[in-house]
Specification:
alpha/beta, 7-stranded mixed β-sheet, 19% strand
């Protein structure tokens, strides 16, 4: 419990690809010609990270200087207000909208949902992801799904992206709690509330009036009398002499969810309350560690609460906010606050020593000696896990992953990419999770990031927070498609809730023979995606 603080301060406002002997995936592309499209994407998570150099040996993330990208991204026509010049899907209109056929990309005016003066307006910073798939039907399905998830066409997404969450400030004597019904379900109106992925918090005044935010789904605030019995026999705390702001949290033990579902909101709240305000945050080891890493002084302003603990602010105010949907809503609007916060304490930039980072959820492809390689590729050998935090499967088949890496290496040579290829899984050779300092260093150096969806890719939060158009990191993420939704939720990727990061977003889908445990991608799609990302005219 923090000590009482004095009066609060004023507010701070061409080469052939290698032969693919081991690829179990059908390499023929439906339709023959790849079709790209711009679209939106969704989210969830997986796990952090292992570092090794491209020769399989552990190393620091130093790299050779890459070939400089001198492209000038300037519009060739003037666009009306609310639009920017960039890539858009070329569409042929049939008698019915159901008969639309996506053909190829073209340059033109597109609606912009991002209005941030601090960010350059770049072709590769459009508020869309580029789907690399040879099947026009899959690209169209992806696009329509994401528009539906956003709640409507681009015109309505501007409001969806742009609104700041509602805030309520309660008078002295008010209380706060974040509920967890596990093993006490009979005391709860909603028995599924668990303090992790189903959140219910309460904030109420001394006379019992609860804060209410109407019209939002899913609701994260409830009347305290529906859950107050959970506090029986539990901790009750009284804070005196301070004003307080409370955050309910979402998946507070998970590295990726803390980064993309919690810290943007905390950073935003930090920007709107006086600089002596105490923060109420969920007490988990990872949450504590990440906050301390981002800002070593900030924990002095934090009271770390337990589930079902009732905290009363005796003679100060209690401020709460309604981040209406954790998924997507903060994906753009609140990320700029976290970017600024990270940059305050971690400003170092790498403009010459860049790397290409491959995120491997399992073992490092090609790593280890002959015995390890034989074990890894042996008949019937299950794919091992390199990171203790990789708990949700989705590991690429080891034989197939070697071909994935070979395809990346061939594309690097074909395009004259001189960066070092660095493998990143989340832990070192002993299986220990890498320090956050190392994780930041790896991703801050990256020019391109490639890999399957998972919390390890949430480390894109550490990339350069304010790059120029030429400096933006290219991100290629493997996600479930319409024929591989058995792997995870359909089109589940990081664009949806991390699109406020200034990246150039690309996706491709898992192949149909993927499972929740073992995945494959279509190598022709990967090859063309790399060519598109690294081509001088894109």
């Amino acid at each position: 419990q923090p000590s009482p603080l004095p009066t609060m301060a004023t507010p701070a406002m061409p080469q052939m690809l290698p032969e693919r002997k081991n690829d179990p995936v059908d390499q023929t592309a439906n339709g023959g010609k790849i079709t790209l499209a711009l679209s939106l994407v969704l989210i969830l998570a997986g796990a952090p990270i292992l570092l090794s150099s491209s020769d399989g040996s552990s190393s620091s993330p130093a790299a050779d200087a890459p070939v400089a990208d001198k492209r000038i991204l300037q519009p060739s026509q003037k666009c009306p207000p609310g639009m920017i010049y960039g890539l858009r899907p070329k569409v042929e209109e049939g008698p019915s909208s159901r008969r639309r056929r996506l053909q190829e990309l073209e340059m033109g005016c597109v609606e912009s949902t991002r209005i941030e003066p601090e960010d350059d307006t770049c072709v590769n910073a459009l508020p869309y992801g580029v789907m690399h798939d040879a099947r026009p039907s899959e690209v169209l399905s992806y696009q329509e799904y994401q528009v539906k998830m956003a709640g409507g066409p681009a015109a309505s997404r501007r409001g969806y992206d742009g609104k700041i969450p509602d805030v309520a400030t309660l008078p002295p004597g008010s209380s706060f709690a974040n509920w967890n019904c596990r093993q006490r379900e009979d005391m709860c109106e909603d028995r599924g509330v668990n303090g992790v992925n189903k959140i219910k918090g309460s904030a109420w005044t001394a006379d019992g009036k609860d804060v209410e935010f109407f019209g939002y789904r899913p609701g994260r605030w409830a009347r305290h009398e529906q859950y107050w019995k959970l506090n029986q026999g539990r901790k009750t705390t009284e804070l005196t002499g301070v004003d307080v702001v409370a955050h309910t949290g979402f998946f507070p033990p998970n590295f990726g969810h803390i980064l993309h579902d919690n810290l943007p909101a905390v950073a935003w709240l930090r920007s709107i309350v006086p600089d002596r305000t105490i923060f109420l945050l969920p007490d988990t080891k990872t949450f504590r560690s990440l906050v301390h890493f981002i800002d070593p002084e900030f924990p002095k302003r934090v009271y770390w609460y337990q589930p079902n603990e009732i905290i009363t602010v005796k003679d100060g105010t209690l401020t709460v906010s309604n981040q209406r949907q954790m998924y997507g809503y903060m994906g753009n609007t609140l990320w700029k606050y976290l970017r600024h916060w990270i940059a305050e304490n971690h400003p170092k930039r790498y403009l010459e020593e860049r790397t290409i980072v491959y995120y491997a959820r399992g073992i490092i492809p090609g790593g280890g000696g002959a015995r390890e390689r034989a074990r890894r590729l042996g008949d019937g050998a299950p794919p091992p896990k390199a990171s203790a935090n990789t708990k949700h499967g989705r590991l690429l088949d080891p034989r197939h992953e070697e071909d994935v890496v070979a395809t990346i290496r061939a594309a690097m040579e074909r395009h004259g990419r001189e960066e070092k290829l660095v493998f990143f899984t989340g832990s070192n050779k002993r299986g220990d999770i890498l320090p956050f300092e190392v994780q930041l260093d790896v991703f801050r150096r990256a020019s391109t990031i490639i890999g399957p969806h998972g919390s390890g890719l949430a480390n894109i939060a550490w990339t350069d927070p304010f790059p120029t158009c030429e400096e933006r990191v290219k991100m290629l993420e493997f996600i479930p498609g319409s024929d591989s939704a058995q792997v995870q939720q359909l089109y589940n990727g990081y664009y949806w809730n991390m699109r406020g990061m200034p990246l150039e977003w690309h996706q491709l889908t898992y192949a149909a023979n993927s499972t929740q445990d073992t995945t494959y991608i279509r190598l022709p799609d990967l090859e063309r995606a790399l060519d598109d990302m690294w081509a001088e005219n894109i």
